[in-house]
Amino acid sequence: MRRHLAPHRLLNRRHSPRRHSPRRHSPRSQAPARARSAPVRAAAQQLPRVAPLPLVPPPYSQLMSNSGLAPTASAQLTDLARRVIALLPDHGRILVGIAGSPGAGKTTLAMQVAATVNALLDSTEIAVHLPMDGFHLANATLDRLGRHDRKGAMDTFDGWGFVVLLRRLLTEYDHTVYAPSFDRNVDEGIAAEIAVLPSNRVVMVEGNYLLADTEPWVQINSLLAESWFCETSERERLRRLVDRHERHGRTPEAALAWAESVDGQNALLIEATRPRATLTISGQ
Q: Which domain holds residue 180?
């Protein structure tokens, strides 16, 4: 029987954070490990390896305010960031994935954890946020395929291209790797707007289908040092989605219809992938 999730609880899927395995890399990454850079090494020595966390931050929609992070939320984000730092190998880069349904809070969580990792390591270039949304098919392509009326479904993304990018990030360290972003104001992907620098050791990847069990998505989980599932109640997700769709031009009626139909159908598929995550985090 599925365990009932109490609000703001973190469910441990494994007894300890999964370490990144060298055999997931190309032969180049299997060479003898090099020492960490001085700033990372010094900071890491002060951050002990952490066990699975007992708590999770409160709703991520509440993490940012005009006055900044609440003290409790800030402390719990620090725990999550320390968990990520504990996964870092001596050499190379790790991907930490955050999956979840539309409106669950994936983007906010990924951005806040990346920022906290950088703060703990006294750097602006250790962790970077990478959304899957940049791999939306172009609207013209969706029109041609007859899929524009359900944009956001699994087959409205370039999944194969996304997997190739993740593999590149795990093997290409000596130059900048560029990735697309997504601009909701124009409802299109923006090519090469995100730069993953050689100094970026942590990539916080977030997207709906990171834990799906069909090709090509099924290849992603094995590329992740750890995967988190951001779980939020249907009622709260619906509220966030309607607000999002209205802010980007839909009428209240159209916003609700899209959130209940298109987003709702996608959520049914995504929620079923939760058991594959290392951790489940409450986003409400």
A: 92-284
